[in-house]
Structure prediction request, 249 residues.
Amino acid sequence: MDLSRLTPLVSIAGFFGVWILAAAFSDDPQILPQPWLLLDPLRQELASGELLFHLGATVRRVLWAFCLAMSMGLALGLMMGRQRWLNRLLDPWLVIFLNLPALVLIVLCYLWIGLNETAAIVAVTLNKIPNVATVIREGARALDPQLTAMAQVYRMSPVRRLRHVILPQLAPFITASARSGIAVIWKIVLVVEFLGRSSGVGFQIHLYFQLFDVAMVLVYALSFICIMLLVEWLLLQPLERHSQRWRSA
Prediction:
């Protein structure tokens, strides 16, 4: 049996062990309840359908923002990495948006577009595009010129060159930006929901924050963290292994 597969489970068990000790030390369920005290409110939220409804709203926003940010950031980063004049032109813009606080973009989008889904998704997307573009730009700069020359010798079409030469080399950078991107995006989505939406995990956390209900805040936060862990283990990590299989061939 491969003991390395048990490492994540041991790590999670350690997390809950620290939680149990911290809750016992505080000795106040209103401050930090024990993990098992969340089971009853979790069951009630599932039975009422509230948890699944708000999780679905947040997942939808995360998927929209993730797909838009990854596609735009990938195209922008690839062009900046391959074209020096474009990199010199857009690099100041990239630095500005990298250092612009997420809260400022969220507030401006709500003020300019309105308190609607479009503003929420645009705000999250604009926050993430610069990070994706920066990572992909470095990957584009690291492309092997010999492979590019080979593609030119064999007169590969731009589509085939992109598919068989460029994207396999960018795969580690794409997976790295995707992994960090989805982690950052869902956190920004919660802020967007906290400030200006009437559904989603962030909206519910805002509601229970006003009620000083720590247990319900943890129920909603941990529920979405569980979804993100499943995405990491079942989607992102297998894709990363698949994308790098050519390196060991």
Observations:
- The chain has one domain: 52-248.
- DSSP finds ten helices and no strands in the chain.
- The radius of gyration is 22 Å.
